[in-house]
Amino acid sequence: MRPVALALLLVGSLPAAAAPFEGTWAPTFPACADPDAAVKLYAHRIERAGGSCGIGRLRTEGNAYDAVAWCRRGLAETPERLRFEVLNGDLRITYPDRGDRERLVRC
Fold this sequence. Notes:
By secondary structure, the chain is mostly beta strands. Helix content is 8%, strand content 54%.
């Protein structure tokens, strides 16, 4: 398979521009200055104080982005489904497998 076709297959219908969830986020504006609280999101990677996750699949669904992230927990690396939505300037990350979500502000 050609590299461009493989990239399109992995990314789905994402435009070449940065996804709206990319950037640095935190639970509150003051927490943006705290490296332990800030979360850095890239199209294919999540970095936070507890470690990092690689995003293996990312697809758009309306204004949301669904992802499968591979995160290391101890010695195991496990997949986790995520949904990113930017609503009114806030980022909502939903964790469907855990039934959990978090709200972050852009730093």
